[in-house]
Specification:
The chain is 40% helix and 17% strand. The chain is α/β, with parallel strands linked by helices and 605 residues long. The strands form 4 sheets. Strands 1-2-9-3-8-7-4-6-5 form a 9-stranded mixed beta sheet, with helices on both faces. The protein has a 7-stranded parallel beta sheet with strand order 12-13-11-14-15-10-16. Strand 12, helix 14 and strand 13 form a beta-alpha-beta unit. The protein is globular.
Length: 605
């Protein structure tokens, strides 16, 4: 493989070795393995042989130097070789396979040429968006994400029109294959992203069946954090002789930045951010979001709540961007809502806080983001919002950067009001030294004498005027929803919480013990396809041929329909409410139920 790589890009392998990016670990007749580490002398994307249209898009989003996994994986993938990358989430592996695929895609073909399998719909959407971002100048390219929970109509019409890249979860891809709506006969590239996670979620049989239906001469790129025996078998069968790349990430975050995280539901992010802005003693602050639209929307909502906020993103013209940054620098603006690209290279000394409203999907972006604070020896604070489905991103950040983020408590209404009162009293103290104080004292004294109103009441009325109709104190409200942690609750904790839980209903799925299914596979598959969190699951009772699962009684019909089409261990689960559909016990069959009474059924143990 080393010789192949050298032939593909003459001098690149030697250059990578010279820079300390690649280290030969072992050679064999079947493959050559490389270990990848960070370096202070990075290559540039221009050195890797990518298509000029792809390079143009990279420059527009501000990417100049490839990460170690990208520098090692792109050359062999450009040469048509298969690659196995051992890499954690957040090492830049999406670009490692997307960029060479886009550089080699045939836009004249109508059938899918690339298939990317991802364990979750969130990851599938992220990968799909990345493809579209990198293909900004590859005119005519069509990318289609396919996943459970989305209607078939949109996917079917796109497939009929023709797509070049399909990014999907194994279950939904299998559904399309069985319906005959997805043709993989012209497939040239197959990517297994986070392969170990797919297997852990019970998609092993689906993945095997999908790969079995692809052309033998396909090019395979497999990325995984671990290399269990099952993945080794897949590699041996479908990517023999693949180049193996191992990433030894050494990214580190600033030591003088206090890093915290807050677990919060997506719908509660705005309220959580508002409370944090109320109680944190910040000077200048950047809020990071993922999309251009989100910058404008969030900045507008913050302004509506009385904060001095503005948005910058890739659509903001350079002159406007410079004007906004200068306002932040001079203290005329306190909060900047930005995307990664727009904030790249931003250096404003008064930025004391960074808030990751949307946690980054790669650790390098995390390092760049929090690097906007704590500069030039100053201390800084970085706060990351983590939704229940983003725990893996938090773990990846901690692991790659060899640090532990401290979980913070959401400020309560009492906390917010205490800070408001403190600021109010500080404002009074400051006003006592104002030159106009004498004039107002005379006015108050005259009002008190003429109207016979106590001075205390007059002072309170003036304070109300100063609030301009806004209440001083925050009204008590329900705390933003806190989701369950990754680990299951202990039995006594579950019993204590049972009284407060939402009404549950029992559903039947057509997988059981004979399919060797485990509770974690059921939870993983249903949570992924139905957008459920762990607190939405009750008891799981696995029978020989089927299983019973407790889920919220108010599940929307479209969610139930999406879950019914889900596959676990390669089996269509056909989820449906368990409404007296189990076999009736023999004795019950012999005795007809009395009029007006429902037959009794044996409860599941």
């Amino acid at each position: 493989m080393r010789d192949d790589a050298q032939r593909a890009c003459p001098g690149l392998v030697e250059g990578l070795q010279r820079l300390g990016l690649l280290h030969a670990e072992h050679a064999s007749a079947s493959h050559y393995s490389w270990s990848v580490t960070e370096t202070s002398e990075p290559l540039r994307f221009d050195d890797l042989g990518l298509d000029p249209k792809v390079l143009k898009a990279l420059k527009e989003v501000g990417y100049e130097s490839p990460s170690p996994i990208q520098a090692a994986a792109i050359p062999p993938l450009l040469d048509g070789l298969s690659v196995v990358g051992l890499a954690q989430t957040g090492t830049g592996k999406t670009a490692a396979f997307a960029l060479p695929i886009l550089s080699r895609i045939d836009l004249s073909a109508k059938l899918p040429q690339a298939l990317v399998l991802a364990p979750t719909r969130e990851l599938a959407l992220q990968v799909s968006e990345a493809f579209e971002r990198y293909a900004a100048h590859v005119k005519g390219l069509h990318v289609l994400p396919v996943y459970g929970g989305q209607g078939y109509g949109v996917q079917l019409s796109a497939l009929r029109r023709g797509v070049h890249v399909v990014v999907g979860t194994p279950g939904r891809v299998m559904d399309h294959l069985e319906k005959g709506t997805l043709d993989l006969s012209e497939l040239r590239f197959v990517v297994l992203d986070e392969a170990d996670e797919m297997l852990n979620m019970g998609f092993a049989e689906d993945v095997e069946q999908i790969l079995a239906g692809t052309p033998e001469d396909k090019q395979v790129a497999l990325f995984s954090a671990t290399m269990p025996a099952q993945i080794k078998r897949i590699v041996k069968q479908h990517a023999p002789g693949a180049t193996e790349i191992k990433v030894k990430a050494t990214s580190t975050t600033a030591a003088n930045v206090e890093q915290r995280y807050l677990k919060v539901a997506h719908a509660q992010k705005l309220d959580a951010l508002t409370r944090i802005l109320e109680v944190e003693n910040f000077d200048g602050l950047i809020v990071f979001v993922r999309t251009k639209h989100a910058t404008e929307e969030l900045a507008e909502r913050l302004r509506a709540r009385g904060f001095s906020a503005a948005a910058i993103n890739g659509d903001v013209v350079q002159q406007q961007r410079e004007r906004t940054v200068e306002q932040l620098r001079q203290g005329k603006l306190d909060i900047l809502v930005a995307t990664d690209v727009a904030a790249r290279g931003l250096d404003v000394p008064r930025i004391s806080h960074v808030v990751n409203h949307d946690i980054p999907t790669d650790t390098e972006s995390y390092v760049h983001r929090i690097g906007r604070t704590g500069r030039a020896g100053r201390s800084g604070v970085a706060i990351s919002f983590v939704t229940p489905r983003e725990n893996h991103l938090l773990r990846a950040i901690e692991k790659t950067n060899r640090t532990t983020l401290a979980e913070m408590r959401l400020p309560t209404v009492e906390d917010v009001n205490a800070f408001r009162i403190e600021k109010f009293t500080d404002a009074i103290t400051q006003a006592l030294g104002d030159a106009q104080l004498g004039v107002f004292k005379e006015l108050v004294a005259a009002y008190e004498q003429e109207r016979d109103v106590p001075a205390l009441d007059i002072a309170a009325a003036i304070a109300v005027l100063a609030q301009d109709g806004e209440p001083l104190l925050l009204e008590d409200m329900p705390e933003p929803v806190r989701r369950s942690p990754d680990r299951p609750a202990r039995a006594n904790e579950r019993r204590a919480e049972r009284g407060n839980r939402k009404p549950m209903a029992q559903y039947r799925i057509e997988v059981g013990k004979r399919h060797r299914v485990e509770p974690r596979q059921i939870v993983g598959a249903l949570a992924n396809e139905g957008g459920l969190s762990r607190e939405d699951f009750g008891r799981i009772d696995i029978k020989p041929g089927f299983s019973l699962v407790e889920l919220p009684a108010d599940l929307p019909a479209e969610t139930v329909a999406a879950l019914a089409d889900t596959r676990i261990s390669g089996v269509l689960i056909n989820l449906k409410p368990d409404r007296f559909e189990r076999p009736v016990p023999r004795r019950a069959k012999q005795e007809a139920p009395k009029a007006g009474k429902k037959p009794r059924h044996k409860k599941a143990r």
